C-alpha cells in the first residue's frame, strides 16, 4: 500500500474507528496521538481480513482473553493434540458445546489434510506463520528470551472490541483452549508439570474475567466444572493451596448437582478436595471427607467386589496415610495391609504403587515395634527389585535400619556395604547420592562405636580408626574432604 493510499484509507476509517474507541475501558482510553495508533491497529486488523488471513484474526480473538505475556506455542500444540480425544465428564451447556466445536474446527482445520495426524507439525509451521502475520502488523511481539509471544495490554483491550461475538462466547473459547491444553488428567511427568506451572497467569486471568463478567451479567457465564478441574490442577502444581481449594469446593458442589453424590467422578472430586486439605495441614477435615467417600464406595462396590475394589483401596490408602502421620498406627496398619494385598493382586507385587504402599506398611511396622514383620517385608521388597532399579539401594538401607533396631549389627552393616556398592555402581562414588550413602555408613559405624572420629583442635577425641569391615573409610571421597570431629554417643 502506497503512502497516499494509506492516508485515504486512514481518513476514511478514522471516524468509524473512533466510534469503536468509545467502547474501550476507561483505563485504556488514549490521548489524541494515541487515538491515531488505535486507528492504525484497526486498519491492520482489517487488512488481515482483506488479505485472506482470517486465521490470524481468529487467533487474535483467542489471545485477547489470555494473559498479555507468556503465550507459548505449547498451549496450542497440546490443545490441538488433546482436543482429538476430549470427552467432557460433566454435562456441557450449549455455550460450552459451541466453544468446544469451534476450537475443534479451528485447530483441526488449521492442521490441514496433509498434517491431520501431526498436530506438532502444525504448531511448528502454520501456527508460527499465523503468529508471524500478527507480528508483521505489530499486533503481537516475540519474546525471544522466554520463547513466548506477548501482546501489549492496550492492544489486547482494543482486540476485544473487534471480536464479532458477545464477550461470554469469546471468553468461553479461550477458557476451553486453556483447559483442553492442560487436560483433565494430571500427568506427573516433569514437562507436563512445568507446563501447568507456566499457565498460572493465564488461568488467573480467565478466572478473573469470568468473575467480572458474572458480576455484570448474573448467570451469564461461569467456569464449568470440566475446566475448573484442569485449572485446579494448575494451582496444585503451583502449590497455591487456597486458590485450588476454592475451585475444588465448587467442583464438588457442581458435580453433586449434575451427576449425583454417588457418581465416581463426584467421589474423585471429593478425594481431590481432601488431598488439598492434607496439603494445607487440615487433617481433621481431610479425614472426615475421606471417610465419607469410603462409606459411599463401600455401599456401591463391596457387595459385588468386596473390600478389594480399586476405589475402596484408594480411600483406605488415603486414610492410612493420615493415620500414620498422626501416629494412629493401630488404625493405619490394617488399612495398609488391605491395600498392599489388594494391589499385589490388581497391580502386581513389583509395581511402583504396590512398592510405595509396602514401604509405608514397613515403616508402620517399624514404628509400632513389630520389627520381625518389618524385616520380612523389607526382605520381600528387596528380592522383588532388580539390581538396575534406582530404588534398590534405598531398600537395602531401610532393611539395615530395621536390623539395627533389632541389634543385629553385623547383618545391618553387611546391607549398608551392599547399599554403598550399589550406589557407586549406579551413580559413581563422587555423585551426591553416593556421598550421602558414605556419610550414612560412617554415622552407622559411630553408632556402633566401631569407628572413632578424627581428632580436631576443638576436642580430645582419638585420631585412630578401628576398621571392623574391609571397606577403608579413608579411601572414600567424602572422608578425604570432611574431617570434622563427630563425638561418639
TrEMBL record:
Residues 52-163 form the DUF7779 domain. InterPro entries: DUF7779, NLR-like, TPR-like_helical_dom_sf. Gene3D superfamilies: Tetratricopeptide repeat domain. It comes from the Eukaryota. Signal peptide: none annotated. It holds the Pfam family DUF7779. This is Nephrocystin-3 protein, putative. It comes from Rhizoctonia solani AG-3 Rhs1AP. The lineage of its organism: Eukaryota, Fungi, Dikarya, Basidiomycota, Agaricomycotina.
